[in-house]
Amino acid sequence: MVATHLPLDVVPDEDDPLCATVWVTVQVGEDRIPFVLDSGARRSQVRADVASNWPVLSEDRSHTVFSELQSVYVAAPPLLLGELRIEGLEVSRAPGDDAGAHNLLGLDVLRHHSCLLNLAEQTLTLDGPTDTTGATMPLYLDDVGHAYLDVVVESATASAVWDTGAGITVVNPSLIAQHPQMFNEVEPTSGTDGAGQTQQTPTYIMGPVSIAGVTFQTQKVAAVDLSAANATLDRPMDLILGYPTLCQATWYMDFPRRQWALSLLPR
Q: What SUPFAM superfamilies does its record include (predicted)?
């Protein structure tokens, strides 16, 4: 495959500049439309104002971090991601009355490619070289392509999903209860899931953790009960690794070959 190099737009949260949303531009017909880069979304999502005339294929119910929602699936026209042409995609259409919903570029696209992500440089390369200092390691994927990594919290190993769509790292309250000395509660924050649902969530400063032998520095995390989402997953998650984690390293996630690597960025 020919490598596709994509610029990203990292937009800091208005209330907390240590959290951010990562956007990538997708061309739909003559329009260039921003999508959230979302490796936590099993299926891409398009706002109703964009997809109002796209053919409806099916409907069902799905779960986000905060909510359950009725999903309508529509046939997308050919999409251009840089020079990469994407055809035959069936995407979720966001409810027409949901002003908070975003366009999402999900795993139905990303899982067919290797992804080299550098948020410091705001770049994403699909199907390019590894380009990290770390050796590649086996990557666990669930049946829809969520990438799971082991995170060492003190001496315990926790299961985490690698989620470029999460503006903040999320921690299941049960993990906080097991390691209270690792978490210092601060003022609550507003969290928004992939469906655009927002709610106040307890917020903590999490101490340093280790991933693949690499130490990640103290970061802000949101405590969210993940039991509803976990009930739909093959492998339950203790954490969702969002922007405050991902911005500390360069990540190589090769979904087709089930390999990954990372190298810590200079502080």
A: Acid proteases
Cβ–Cβ < 8 Å for 207, 218: yes
Domain with 150, as residue range(s), is 131-264
Please check whether residue 124 lies inside any domain of the structure.
no
- Helix ranges restricted to H, the chain: 48-51, 107-110, 173-178, 227-230, 243-246
Specify the number of domains making up the chain: 2
Tokens of 230: 């976990």
The tally of CA atoms less than 13 A away on the side-chain side of residue 229 is 23
* Token representation of residue 248: 């500390």
- State how beta strands 123-126 and 4-7 pair: antiparallel
Q: With respect to residue 122, please indicate whether it lies within any of the assigned structural domains.
A: no
Give the pLDDT mean for 208-231.
96
CB 260 within 8 A of CB 249: no
Q: Is residue 139 part of a domain?
A: yes
Over residues 93-129, the pLDDT tens digits come to 988 766 678 999 999 999 999 999 999 999 999 999 8
Q: What is the 3-state secondary structure (H, E, C) of 40-75?
A: CCCCCEECHHHHCCCCEEEEEEEECCCCEEEEEEEE
Tokens of 186: 């601060």
118 lies in a domain? no
